[in-house]
């Protein structure tokens, strides 16, 4: 590379255009000399297009691609779908909220994760488990080691067996997972009029609309509109598909008291708990975005480099001139 | 041309030096990119990360 003067590339482009204009003439002579050899080709093409085999092949191709499309996307393109579902039965679309971690370069707001943990612990943990989060996961994210140790120790875990084969109770450790509110699914259903409160570890990933949906759900309890019947023990929430949800409204202004002085309004608590649940579903989030920045930087400079190298290697070929001297 | 010649004569000529400068260059580039990206990240997200709010809680715990 160092041997080539900087103007070589620019010069080669000028040459390239002059070669180009010379080319059509060259091609024409080639074509005219071969034309009469393939004079039967139009007829040949005709019979190929009208043959039974090609009819069958095109039919198979059409049927196959339609089948493939419907299997991939469920419906045919450009054809309206008939559905018995009303928009209410699919649930209202949530608004896209400006989450503090929404942008490409935005990390989670860890003060919000800390408040959200408090809301989860004091409100949601009465019904919802958080299976996939261990105490140690909170360390360095929302709490210090000492705080997490103290919180874990307040909870009794069953361990064992000991030397006599007995199970025993011991205080929690950093490596223990978040305790479930109910021992099993049946107990959870029995405590909630037959409805199972889902585990919240991955709920943000498990619902269409993610964080926006859960926020809308928590803040979206209204009186049912005229004509909508809600069964005893159910609650009206337009964001929940079907509109009737077994979970009653749980967030009211002042349900928790934040240590950092943030006013605990309904929407503030909903925002905090959803940020916390979003962290629980994507604990790798902050690191992932940083690696993404590095990957984009490295791969785009490698891409630019490869374009430069390709043009550099091709200059000799592109600026080559082929001259045909017919023998006299 | 001067720079390219200097580069060629001092680094490319001996394979041992060439290879080891590639490794050293890759290492330095990796460290530099990490430092650059994380300083940008910390500036962009100032006040939001755990290290920005940690001081409040570790002091409270030790008191």
UniProtKB/TrEMBL annotation, chain A:
Its signal peptide is none
Residues that hold heme c according to the record:
124, 127-128, 247
Which reaction equations make up its catalytic activity? a quinol + 2 Fe(III)-[cytochrome c](out) = a quinone + 2 Fe(II)-[cytochrome c](out) + 2 H(+)(out)
What name does this protein carry?
Answer: quinol--cytochrome-c reductase
Q: Name one GO biological process term.
A: mitochondrial electron transport, ubiquinol to cytochrome c
- SUPFAM superfamilies attached here? Cytochrome c, Cytochrome c1 subunit of cytochrome bc1 complex (Ubiquinol-cytochrome c reductase), transmembrane anchor
What protein family does this chain belong to? Belongs to the cytochrome c family.
Q: Which GO terms describe its molecular function?
A: heme binding; metal ion binding; quinol-cytochrome-c reductase activity
Q: How is the cofactor bound?
A: Binds 1 heme c group covalently per subunit.
Pfam family membership, one:
Cytochrom_C1
Q: Which organism is it from?
A: Sistotremastrum niveocremeum HHB9708
Q: Which UniProt keywords apply?
A: Electron transport, Heme, Iron, Membrane, Metal-binding, Mitochondrion, Mitochondrion inner membrane, Respiratory chain, Translocase, Transmembrane, Transmembrane helix, Transport
What EC number(s) is this enzyme filed under? 7.1.1.8
Task: Identify the cofactor(s).
Answer: heme c
Q: Which GO terms describe its cellular component?
A: mitochondrial inner membrane
Transmembrane stretches in the record are none
Localization (cell): Mitochondrion inner membrane
Domain annotation Cytochrome c: ranges: 111-263
Q: Does the keyword Membrane apply?
A: yes
**Superkingdom of this protein's organism:** Eukaryota
PROSITE patterns reported in the protein's UniProt record: CYTC
**InterPro entries of this UniProt entry?**
Cyt_c-like_dom (IPR009056), Cyt_c-like_dom_sf (IPR036909), Cyt_c1 (IPR002326), Cyt_c1_TM_anchor_C (IPR021157)
Automatic annotation (TrEMBL), chain B:
| Keyword list, A-Z | Electron transport, Membrane, Mitochondrion, Mitochondrion inner membrane, Respiratory chain, Transmembrane, Transmembrane helix, Transport
What do the Gene Ontology cellular component annotations say?
Answer: mitochondrial inner membrane; respiratory chain complex III
Q: Where is the major localization of this protein? A: mitochondrion
Q: Where in the cell is it found?
A: Mitochondrion inner membrane
Which Gene3D superfamilies did the record assign?
A: Cytochrome b-c1 complex subunit 9
Which terms under GO biological process does the entry name? Answer: mitochondrial electron transport, ubiquinol to cytochrome c
- Indicate the transmembrane segments per the record: 17-41
InterPro entries for this protein: QCR9, QCR9_sf
Q: What topology in the membrane does the UniProt record assign?
A: Single-pass membrane protein
Function, as annotated? Component of the ubiquinol-cytochrome c oxidoreductase, a multisubunit transmembrane complex that is part of the mitochondrial electron transport chain which drives oxidative phosphorylation. The complex plays an important role in the uptake of multiple carbon sources present in different host niches.
Q: Which family does it belong to?
A: Belongs to the UQCR10/QCR9 family.
Tell me how this protein assembles.
Component of the ubiquinol-cytochrome c oxidoreductase (cytochrome b-c1 complex, complex III, CIII), a multisubunit enzyme composed of 3 respiratory subunits cytochrome b, cytochrome c1 and Rieske protein, 2 core protein subunits, and additional low-molecular weight protein subunits.
Q: What is this protein called?
A: Complex III subunit 9
